[in-house]
# Entry
Amino acid sequence: LELERLGVHDSVEAVFPPAELAAFLADLPAPVDVIGDGEIATCDAAVTLEHREAFLELDWVHSIQAGVDRFPFDAFEANDVILTNSTGIHDRSVGETVAGYLLSFSRRLHDHVANQQERRWSRPEWDEAFTLPGKTACVVGTGTLGRGVAEVVGSLGVEMTGLRRSSESVPGFEAIYANDDLHAAIAEADFVIVTVPLTDDTRHLFDADAFDTMREDAYFVNVARGPVVDEPALIDALESDAIAGAALDVFEAEPLPENSPLWELDEVIVSPHCAAYTRDYFRDVGEIVRKNVSRLDSDAEFHNRVV
Ligand code: NAD
# Structure
């Protein structure tokens, strides 16, 4: 693979300014430029958020996200285009976001912010606030996100269990379940936290049965992908008090439609798919791109290669 021009597609603007990444990579052996749709064909590789048909003419495409469910793997394969992703960098950012959700629920911070908007001095009921040590959290998917969540939330005294495709132990988790034991894994947890990729196996993994299995005082957290959850079933579970609440960063339709009941439900925190945001995002992505550019003229396997 000979790299003559690397494009930073302007769709990355949703996460960081594309020019920051282009400047960070300015010392690469080939020119790195911010490109729009019209310039894709002038490059042989691109770094991007979104997919474009024109990428199928390139040699290599790098996704700035870990989740690559928006890219057509078969077409990449058929056209001999390498696809790499950005897994491995979101452990701390997503871990801290999830810890924030849990602390909001336990310390009632989301209520205080809502009350402040209304200039309302209103204390929680005596039995609403709690502390985290001794609570249990089940993390569904023990990859980069899951391990980051275990590190940060575990450091707050929460007992961490995990669910993965095998039952082998993982550092940071006191118990591990294999994925055919989902219901056993989530039945007793105070918090259920979803960190799996969206695949044919995980689409609607969380359905009405899963929410029935959870405790009535348990909270559900999704920082993975919206379609891992059957959203109407989640809304039913929240409205019927089958679970205590939810913190949701991702949704079946994004942006979350204005008429979604999730905006207004009590004990629901909505964030706009930004659990992994950090001002260092472009540097973290840039390091992965740099590593792969250095592998271009050797036979070494690409880091984070998906296709
Ligand atoms: P990763 O590849 O490091 O980890 C994914 C883990 O899920 C792996 O350990 C894999 O074995 C496991 N897994 C896959 N299918 C499974 C199944 N059926 N049952 C149990 N475990 C299964 O990826 P990551 O960086 O941790 O990211 C995970 C996903 O989270 C991404 O694919 C993306 O969709 C999402 N994500 C969201 C945000 C956000 O901003 N909210 C940020 C980063 C990633």
